[in-house]
Design goal:
It is a single chain. By secondary structure, the chain is an alpha/beta fold. The chain has a single domain, classed as Rossmann fold (3-Layer(aba) Sandwich), CATH 3.40.50. Helices cover 27% and strands 23% of the residues. The chain contains six helices and twelve strands. It has helices at 4-16, 20-35, 38-42, 59-67, 139-143, 146-149, and strands at residues 45-47, 71-77, 83-88, 94-96, 102-104, 110-111, 118-122, 125-126, 132-133, 157-161, 182-185, 188-190. The strands form three sheets. Strands 6-3-2-1-7-10-11-12 form an eight-stranded mixed β-sheet. Strands 4-5 form a two-stranded antiparallel ribbon. Strand 1 (45-47), helix 4 (59-67) and strand 2 (71-77) form a beta-alpha-beta unit. Its EC number is 6.3.3.2. Its cofactor is Mg(2+). It catalyses: (6S)-5-formyl-5,6,7,8-tetrahydrofolate + ATP = (6R)-5,10-methenyltetrahydrofolate + ADP + phosphate.
């Protein structure tokens, strides 16, 4: 089995090689699938992300959500290597974090991970069991570690967002990993058995 480092390198390279036209068309397709899903339709407070390095672009979903009475939150990195989520609107002022990713400036409504309905998570690779490989810093696993502590936790729904080619046969799960409830790609849904 390939190491997480090898998988990251290979998948990030494939994402960077996508043409802008394909990326836009497939991002639109993926967002259309998302906005018609029960997970999205039932949610009021939705965490998204700003696309980086060839990740699927959720901008169409973000604009749809705000125009349909939902609140969109973006991750903001904290000093303790976790995340909080700050509300995003089309006119919010953004600032660049230490990884070069834009975050909403202070002053807006904030939520912690436990008080969201749906969290759309970026990833580098995933498998059919709901395991994911992220960028390697562990922010999502630390932020949502509370889900491992309860057997019957009902929220938030954690949905990975990826391109179909990022699916792997099997990803080795570590004790600190927080599994996904589902993954959405331009080709449809993958839900763990």
């Amino acid at each position: 089995m390939a190491s997480a480092t090898d998988i990251r390198r290979r998948m990030r390279s494939r994402r960077r090689a996508l043409t802008p036209q394909w990326h836009r068309r497939m991002s639109d397709r993926l967002c259309t699938r998302l906005v018609t899903s029960p997970d999205y339709l039932k949610a009021h407070d939705v965490a998204a992300y700003l696309a980086f390095g060839g990740e699927p672009d959720l901008a169409p979903l973000m604009h749809h959500a705000t125009s349909h009475g939902k609140r969109i939150y973006l991750p903001v990195l904290t000093q303790d290597r976790r995340m909080i989520f700050r509300e995003w609107t089309p006119d919010v002022v953004m600032e660049i974090n230490r990884f070069g990713i834009a975050e909403p400036q202070r002053g807006g409504r904030e939520r912690d991970g436990q008080h969201l309905d749906l969290v759309l998570t970026p990833l580098v690779a995933f498998d059919a069991a709901g395991n994911r490989i992220g960028m390697g810093a562990g922010f999502y696993d630390r932020t949502f570690a509370f889900r491992r502590m309860r057997q019957h936790w009902t929220g938030p729904r954690l949905v990975g967002v990826a391109w179909a080619f990022q699916e792997q046969d099997r990803i080795e799960s570590m004790p600190w990993d927080v599994p996904l409830d589902a993954v959405i790609s331009e080709q449809g849904w993958t839900r763990p058995e």
